[in-house]
Amino acid sequence: MSKKIVAIDMDDTICHLIPKAIHYHNLMYPDLPLTMEQIISFDLSGIWHPACTDDIFFGRPGLYEELEIFDEYTIEEVKRMTVDYDVIVVTAARPASVPEKWRWLQMHMPFIPFDNFFVAKRKYLLDFDLLIDDGPHNLIAAKEAGKQTIMIPRPWNAPVQQDFILKDSWQGMNELVGQILT
Ligand SMILES: [Mg+2]
């Protein structure tokens, strides 16, 4: 029997995008600093500096290569997961950031082969068994399609956290995936 497929998001699931993007935003616009707690939706246009744009906030050259690992357990847990599951990394990357994201994966998780790197915004079209993600839109769509889900709790998914299994650290993630998929 083929392995079950576990789809893992990148930004704010295995690495921290929003804190780094906020950091650069605040360096550029010190008169209007943002905090994590303010990020309560994926639409930031109402809270970032009026001069800020999607390209400035999310498209800074090199941004995706310098993102920090989610926590000290992330790499080991993902690596262990590849023993029992077909682990695919699925990211809704901006086209220009795809090479940066692939290089980040190669640097931190070289055990993820190119075949398992998916760039997809409409993740619900993929045939995975379980999705680990922070994006409410991805998790809701996966759930509606009958897939299993694990939500990384972040300020922007607070309104729907009660509908999902939450895991705010990668410590023990394998065990949780095993419990859900057996
Ligand atoms: Mg994400």
From TrEMBL:
The record's section on SUPFAM superfamilies has: HAD-like (SSF56784)
The record's Pfam families line, in alphabetical order, gives: NT5C
**Classification via InterPro entries:** 5'(3')-deoxyribonucleotidase (IPR010708), HAD-like_sf (IPR036412), HAD_sf (IPR023214)
Coiled-coil positions are: none
> What family does the database annotate?
Belongs to the 5'(3')-deoxyribonucleotidase family.
Q: What is this protein called?
A: 5'(3')-deoxyribonucleotidase
Species per Swiss-Prot/TrEMBL record:
Paenibacillus vini
